[in-house]
Design goal:
The chain is α+β, with helices and mostly antiparallel strands and 496 residues long. The chain is built from nine helices and 23 strands. The strands form five sheets. It has a six-stranded antiparallel beta barrel with strand order 4-5-6-9-8-7. A six-stranded antiparallel β-barrel has the order 10-11-12-15-14-13. Strands 17, 18, 19, 20, 21 and 22 form a six-stranded antiparallel sheet that branches.
Length: 496
């Protein structure tokens, strides 16, 4: 047992408290202790084992006071939590309300601003209209036209992506052209023939008293046994090749007005021809044509290059595969596919500035299309429109000249000083040509006054005449003084 003496000299004059003097504490091994003069009114913590004993055996009222203190702390904590929760909820609600209020205010401000802008715009428009009206009263018709053209030009520059109105205006002037022809082949000395077909496009460029006239590419109508034209409203009519220029790949097609209904005539238009001389690189263009033979379609792009020089190959019927003529073309990135040939390349004002040709450039390129400049084509088109139209005669009834021939191409003409035309390499004895006095070495340059530049053109022209009809041939005949012009009349015979 351990014993310690602590000199405790506590003096308290309050009657409710007792004095403790010279108290002696005894610590037991079990952790309990006993003290003399222990008063339960004092609070003591003691004991290693956790049990205490007082002289009077009571805990005193201070124990009850400690329990009451813990309860109050818990109650205060709960109240604080509730208080915080209530005020936090009120705070969040206030924030939401303020946010909604700000949103409503912002919308009202935007609405007011929009209404104000509309009012200002309306006022400006009204003022502009008044100003325009006032200014137009003081201008001549030429000045008004110039102002309107300037306005149209500015609008065109700012609405490049929307071509609906331009297409709506030009589409009725573009047609689909279908060509049925006889394809001839030879194999092991034997000749075979079969019917074939192709499709392309055309542009309505004018009319006369009897015909509606269209322009297309020569390769679209070449060797045609039957041509049909489909208009924008879906109706179809038969057509004839009026004239062509093979070297320029141009042809004019004629459709009899008597074959076109009044309803169709009211739905089609004649295209406006522009000027390709005024084009600039980067200018927007629109291509319209019978792409892949599916019907009219539209593609857009820009002028990629001007005056693009490309050589056209000699026709397959000739014995020499050399460049016959070099032409210049418009290059564009607007898609030009098979069937688009002969269709229109137009500017943003709806004017035809080129005639598309899928044949130029071939299929080895991508994103590059070509068109014949309208300024180059227009004089040729005008000349072809003036030619007399002749319907193609059935093959069994066609006239027969009785020669075999070759083309005098540009290279040969330059090298040997020969005129362009169809070179007579052989004359069949007893034939129409033989009776008319044609001999080997003659060069046929015209038929009935119409210029001939190749053997293919001569055959195409002869196909419009029946056996027994007389034609006038212009020939260049050799002499000691060089080639001399001579005119002969030939009564066509019958083949076979």
């Amino acid at each position: 047992m351990y014993e310690n003496n602590y000199p405790n000299n506590y003096s308290n004059h309050t009657a409710e408290q007792n004095s403790v003097n010279n108290s002696t504490y005894h610590y037991e091994n079990g952790g309990s202790f006993s003290g003399a003069n222990y008063n339960a009114g004092e609070s003591h913590a003691a004991g290693f084992g956790g049990s205490t004993a007082g002289a009077n055996g009571s805990t005193g009222r201070n124990g009850k006071g400690n329990k009451g203190g813990i309860g109050k702390k818990i109650a205060v904590a709960v109240c604080c939590g509730l208080f915080f929760g209530v005020f936090a909820g009120l705070g969040f609600q206030a924030i939401d309300t303020a946010s909604d209020f700000l949103k409503i205010g912002s919308k009202n401000a935007q609405s007011a601003e929009t209404d104000s802008d509309k009012d200002n715009a309306q006022i400006a428009d009204n003022q502009g209209d008044k100003a325009t009206s006032l200014s137009y009263d003081n201008l001549s018709e030429e000045q008004i036209d110039e102002i309107q053209q300037l306005i149209t030009s500015q609008v065109a520059k700012t609405t490049v992506t929307d071509v609906t109105e331009v297409v709506k205006e030009v589409m009725p002037a573009v047609v689909s052209v279908n060509n049925r022809y006889i394809e001839r082949m030879s194999f092991l000395g034997q000749e075979f023939s079969q019917e074939a077909g192709g499709s392309g496009s055309g542009i309505i460029v004018g009319k006369n008293d009897e015909e509606l006239l269209l322009v297309s590419n020569y390769h679209v109508v070449a060797s045609a046994e039957e041509l049909t034209v489909q208009f924008a409203d879906g109706t179809q009519c038969g057509a004839q090749t009026k004239g062509y220029d093979e070297a320029k790949d141009l042809a004019v097609i004629a459709v009899p007005l008597s074959d076109i209904s009044n309803d169709t005539m009211n739905k089609i238009t004649i295209a406006k021809l522009g000027s390709s001389d005024d084009l600039t690189v980067g200018e927007p263009v629109i291509a319209i044509g019978n792409s892949l033979g599916y019907g009219q379609s539209v593609t857009t792009g820009v002028v990629s290059a001007l005056d693009r020089v490309i050589g056209t190959s000699a026709p397959a019927q000739t014995s020499q595969q050399t460049d016959t003529e070099v032409n210049t073309f418009i290059q564009t990135d607007a898609a030009i596919n098979p069937g688009n040939s002969g269709g229109a390349l137009i500017n943003i004002k709806g004017e035809v500035i080129g005639i598309n040709s899928n044949k130029i450039g071939g299929s080895a390129v991508e994103g590059m299309g070509y068109a014949i400049p309208i300024s180059d084509a227009q004089p040729i088109i005008q000349k072809l429109m003036e030619k007399q139209t002749r319907s193609k005669v059935a093959e069994s009834e066609r006239g027969y000249l009785g020669i075999t021939g070759l083309d005098v191409n540009q290279e040969s003409a330059s090298l040997y000083g020969l005129p362009l035309g169809a070179f007579v390499s052989n004359v069949v004895e007893g034939s129409a040509a033989d009776k008319a006095g044609l001999v080997r070495g003659d060069i046929i340059t015209a038929i009935n006054g119409w210029e001939i530049k190749s053997m293919a053109e001569l055959k195409e022209e002869i196909s419009g005449y029946a056996a027994g009809e007389t034609v006038e041939l212009t020939i260049m005949q050799g002499s000691p003084d060089g080639y001399q012009t001579k005119t002969v009349e030939v009564t066509l015979g019958r083949a076979g």
